[in-house]
């Protein structure tokens, strides 16, 4: 990857024990992939460049050498860096092709010898790296907590009636409505879902809490925000509200010794 933006690849063919270069490829990856960690950028680059090389490989067996564990990312990765549609597309292109094999190589491979390409870091566990980089806070989990102080369910909605848009959110427990209110009519459903999560975090200040949401988008934002800077996404809400949600999720929920909280997909019972 050149500057984390341009994907580069060398297509080689074996001749005896040696690799002989056949073609060189270089293409800029899309803005969504550019905002993700290097492991998932390489995943997007592999799919992009393999498609370009099909005119030469012609369906023959191809081995992809890289310092990243791409197959492990697709099989074991639980993050939502890419949309569900794109994740399925990557799995279909890279995992279900019987003529593709992924192999882990050292930091130095022919692609790193192209001009202006930095040498990548030493071998690492891609799944672990992605998990650590994208987690908002260390005590945030995507599975229910054991015996939490609170259990909240959140929802945000947006609908039109007689040409006017209405937006609202709700935070409930299993039996009671904790908070429900309308929101500005220029807010969409995704923004309302994020705001509901932010309010649930505020309402649980000082306690451990498991928060359920039926929004895959909001769930992905909470669990896949980069600590360094927000990654571009396919349909983000206004950045100000996006940042506010994450700022609230950084607040401790159990005083000076936070015991953690969780946010995971689910539906309100009944």
TrEMBL record:
Alphabetized Gene3D superfamilies for the sequence: 3.10.20.370, Ribonuclease H-like superfamily/Ribonuclease H
Domain annotation RNase H type-1: ranges: 146-270
InterPro entries, alphabetized: DNA/RNA_pol_sf, RNaseH-like_sf, RNaseH_domain, RNaseH_sf, RT_RNaseH
Region Disordered, annotated ranges: 250-270
Coiled-coil intervals: none
Keywords: Endonuclease, Hydrolase, Nuclease, Nucleotidyltransferase, RNA-directed DNA polymerase, Transferase
Recorded GO MF terms: nucleic acid binding; RNA-directed DNA polymerase activity; RNA-DNA hybrid ribonuclease activity
Keyword Nucleotidyltransferase among record annotations: yes
The protein, known as: RNase H type-1 domain-containing protein
């Amino acid at each position: 990857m050149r500057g984390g933006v341009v994907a580069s690849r060398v297509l080689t063919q074996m001749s005896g024990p040696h690799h002989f270069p056949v073609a060189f490829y270089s293409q800029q990856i899309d803005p969504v992939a550019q905002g993700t960690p290097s492991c998932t950028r390489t995943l997007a680059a592999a799919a992009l460049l393999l498609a370009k090389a099909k005119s030469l490989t012609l369906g023959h067996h191809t081995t992809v050498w890289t310092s990243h564990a791409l197959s492990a990312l697709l099989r074991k990765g639980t993050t939502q860096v890419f949309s569900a549609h794109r994740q399925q597309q990557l799995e279909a292109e890279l995992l279900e092709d019987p003529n593709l094999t992924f192999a882990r190589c050292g930091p130095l491979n022919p692609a790193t010898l192209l001009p202006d390409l930095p040498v990548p870091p030493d071998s690492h566990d891609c799944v672990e790296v992605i998990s650590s980089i994208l987690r908002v806070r260390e005590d945030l989990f995507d599975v229910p907590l054991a015996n939490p102080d609170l259990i909240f369910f959140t929802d945000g909605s947006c609908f039109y009636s007689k040409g006017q848009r209405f937006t609202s959110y709700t935070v409930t427990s299993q039996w009671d409505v904790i908070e429900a209110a309308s929101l500005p009519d220029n807010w969409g459903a995704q923004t309302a879902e994020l705001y509901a999560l932010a309010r649930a975090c505020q309402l649980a200040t000082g306690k451990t809490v498991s928060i359920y949401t039926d929004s895959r988008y909001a769930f992905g934002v909470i669990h896949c925000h980069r600590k360094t800077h927000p990654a571009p996404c396919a349909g983000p809400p206004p950045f100000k509200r996006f940042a506010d949600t994450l700022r609230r999720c950084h607040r401790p929920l159990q005083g000076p010794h936070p015991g953690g909280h969780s946010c995971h997909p689910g539906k309100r019972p009944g």
